[in-house]
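Appendix B.2, paired examples.
Example (i):
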Amino acid sequence: MKIIVSEPLPLSADEAFYLIRDDMPSLVPYLYDIERIEVVERTEEGDTIRLVNMWYGDMAKIPRAVRKFIKRELVTWKDYATWTTHDRCSRWRLEPSIGVGVFECAGSTTLTEDGDTCLLEMDINLEIYPEKVPGVPKLLARRFRPQIEAVIEKQVSPNLRNLALSVRRYVEAKG
């Protein structure tokens, strides 16, 4: 699945870039279905910063019909991002905590200025493979494929799509 986002933000491109790169955990109250984000690792080399963030989805948002198949680890993932200051860009990939191959998600995030407007632009590729969910028999995976895909897609995709909305809410809350 290809996801393209291009949304205006109420900040300068530099302000938005540093907020998203350096203070992502402060956006958690404004993100869809995310319980918390932890910075696991940060390394700096010139204008390049590499981050590893651990994202924890909100278990309460999982539909009851598939809840018994969904473990906490399935809605927890690492975000490996390389941010470059000169172009205000991040190239990243997400890795599930368990079930290697349950989904593949990679993309880029760029903050640009168009006159007085800052644009958050994201180019995302997301592929979901519910038959690889640990502990789910293949027959059930086929039967529940749509529900399992929906859970994973609801945990990953809306947060990627709603990053701009989350930044706007954060800015409004900060006054």
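Example (ii):
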Amino acid sequence: MDELTGLATYRDFVVSLAALSGQERISLVLFDVDDLQALNDRHGHEAVDRFLARLGSLIQERCGAGEMAARLGGDEFALSLLEDEPAEVIREVEQIRRRFGEETAGATLSVGICDGRTALRAAAPLSLLEAAGGALADAKAQGPGGLSVFRLG
């Protein structure tokens, strides 16, 4: 368990995803706090630790049975959802982003999303975590507050 947020760790999250391997009705969301160093400079480390803990709480509040939230490291968080409709996942992500921004002096999150059905149609070695990571990289390339959904083609 991550000491700051109380969420699962990267290792626990990967084990959880492996147990869900092959299940189509799942989506994986990766969150990354934008410009963490600038937040540290502006608000201080204690405030940023509170921001990270609050993000952990917001993500955990969304978790239902069979779903998992984790702090993957530093300012990167993950959420597995037993939901495969991208529009619904985006709606839920936007609620988390809005609340986080309101409660943290306007801090923003970049988000990458991949649903299980898309990952299963992708190349065999492509995992849900890799696909969501690629989507997160695309979101960060958009600038602060970017959002990207992994899609084939």
